[in-house]
Amino acid sequence: xxxxxxxxxxxxxxxxxxxxxxxxxxxxxxxxxxxxxxxxxxxxxxxxxxxxxxxxxxxxxxxxxxxxxxxxxxxxxxxxxxxxxxxxxxxxxxxxxxxxxxxxxxxxxxxxxxxxxxxxxxxxxxxxxxxxxxxxxxxxxxxxxxxxxxxxxxxxxxxxxxxxxxxxxxxxxxxxxxxxxxxxxxxxxxxxxxxxxxxxxxxxxxxxxxxxxxxxxxxxxxxxxxxxxxxxxxxxxxxxxxxxxxxxxxxxxxxxxxxxxxxxxxxxxxxxxxxxxxxxxxxxxxxxxxxxxxxxxxxxxxxxxxxxxxxxxxxxxxxxxxxxxxxxxxxxxxxxxxxxxxxxxxxxxxxxxxxx
Length: 356
Hints:
With about 350 residues, this protein is an alpha/beta fold. The chain folds into 3 domains: about 120 residues, Rossmann fold; about 90 residues, Udp-n-acetylmuramoylalanyl-d-glutamate--2,6- Diaminopimelate Ligase, Chain: A, domain 1; about 120 residues, Nucleotidyltransferase, domain 5 (2-Layer Sandwich). It has 13 helices and 17 strands. The strands form 3 sheets. Strands 3-2-1-4-5-6-7 form a 7-stranded mixed β-sheet, sandwiched between helices. The longest helix has 14 residues. It is globular, with a radius of gyration of 24 Å. The relative contact order is 0.09. The mean pLDDT is about 95. It comes from Vibrio mangrovi.
């Protein structure tokens, strides 16, 4: 899977020679190019006050930063800004002759390793990647999680433990919940699993594994005979309809009860949807903040495109312009893959779905 993240890229050239390399990259990457004011030409923006200040702004804003110049300068610029491997942007350094592309920071989660490979291909350079799993031709827990769009309860510890085992040559297995394969057609072979042994539930104890990656959206899991680390694909969606002013605690409690009955892990939730007139509904906003997921809004017209297949309410039709809300919202979010039955309680309607 391509994990290159080019949503927002800033490139810093420190010499006129570096601009020729930058010009080649500008053709294929959407990015803002910065240089000293004395070197400004078309397509370049002067540093905002200084290189240090401009880099600091980009570090907080962008998904990737590229320096064309010496590694030492790049290190000094970003050193005071470093926070966490899970949140820092990708940082690359390219020499001004375009011979080498160094993945300097956030190789896995930030996507610097893949970006370095991509950039190297564009300019005909040699990528320089030093992360242990890549050097040893093994996958990594954190990059696999990114590829799958998955979470883990103790992500940092799981990444450290699994990656150390892999690069040390210890056997690590990966089990895919059959429910995932059956429900959404999940296929682990679409992702990077180099160094892992794919095992069924009844095979785990026979492989003498040092650890197991358990890929499942379910909350309750088997008692594995080896240390296990669950990767929870974020595939659960929820459509919500509710009366105005419904209690935030009521909605949260009912929501948690229902996903527990479905045996779905809370970390599997990826998005909540409703009709656009609910954009400021406190209970739904509280729920999305609690689970740290986006709130997708649909117009009545959009919901009407699939609402006819669900039970209609005259009151809801007169109030919001469509006969039902939660079911069509979940249907649109999941592309028609609904999960369980719609729940109607205390002025709240909940419908769940799963993204394939």
